[in-house]
Amino acid sequence: MANASLPAAWQHVPVLMGRHARLEPMSRDHVDGLRAALSGDALAALWFTQVPKAADASAYVDTVLAAQAEGRVLPFVVRDAGGRVVGSTRFYGLEADVPKLSIGYTWYTPDVQRTGVNTEAKLLLLTHAFETLGCISVLFETSWFNHRSRTAIARLGAKQDGVLRNHKRHTDGSPRDTVVFSIIDGEWPAVKRNLLAKLARHEQDSP
C-alpha cells in the first residue's frame, strides 16, 4: 500500500514530456519495450551497475512496482521522440518533510546514451523535483567504479558530497563504495541554464 505519510504529489508519477524524451509511469505494459531496450545484455554485463538482463524484464518491473506500492519509489519509463522505450529511471529516497529525494537506477539502451534523450530527461526530472515538489536538495548515487556515471553526474552540475564506504553491495555481492552527489535549490537556476544550453547544442548537432 502507498505511504500515507507522503503528500499526494509525492505518491503520483507524472508524465513529463519534452522534444526528445517522454517520461511516463512504469507499468506492466512496458515489459516488452524494456526487454527490447535491454537486448544484448551489454548494460547488465557491467558488474558495478544495477541493470537487469533482458530475460529478467518482467520480474524487474514487478519488483519496481512493488516498491512503488510501498511508497518507496516513483518509477518512470523513458521513450525517445519516436515513441520507442529506451530506458528507465526513478525518484527514490523520498523525504517530503525535508523535502528532498534521489534520482537514480537510471539506464538507457546504448544508442541513446550521451544524446538529447538523457539531457532532457534529467532536465524534466530536476524541474519536477525543484519546481513542483519544492525540493531543497536532489541527490545522485553511484558506485565508485562507475566512472562514466560519476562523470555524467558531475557534468549535470551536481557537486560531490562524499564517499560512503561499504555503503551497500553490488549485484554480484561485493561491497560497494557509494559516491554521493547533490544539487541544492540555490544551485538549481544555474544547473537548469546549463542543461538548457547542453540541450540546445544537442539540437544543433542533430541532422
Quick tags:
207 residues; globular; 5 helices; alpha+beta
Report how far apart the termini are: 47 Å
The biggest sheet amounts to: 8 strands, mixed
Q: Extract low-pLDDT stretches.
A: none
Number of strands: 8
User: What level of helicity do the residues show?
Assistant: 25-40%
Could you give the order of strands across the largest sheet?
A: 1-2-3-4-5-6-8-7
What is the helix tally? Answer: 5
Give the H and E element order.
EEHHEEEHEHEEH
Report the average pLDDT across residues.
Answer: 94
What share of residues are in beta strands? 25-35%
Instruction: Kindly provide the radius of gyration, computed on alpha-carbon positions and rounded to a whole number of angstroms.
Output: 16 Å
Structural class category: alpha+beta
Rough outline: globular
Give a topology summary:
Blueprint: E1 16-17, E2 21-25, H1 31-37, H2 57-69, E3 73-80, E4 85-95, E5 100-108, H3 116-132, E6 137-143, H4 147-156, E7 159-169, E8 175-184, H5 188-205
Parallel strand pairs: 5-6
Antiparallel strand pairs: 1-2, 2-3, 3-4, 4-5, 6-8, 7-8
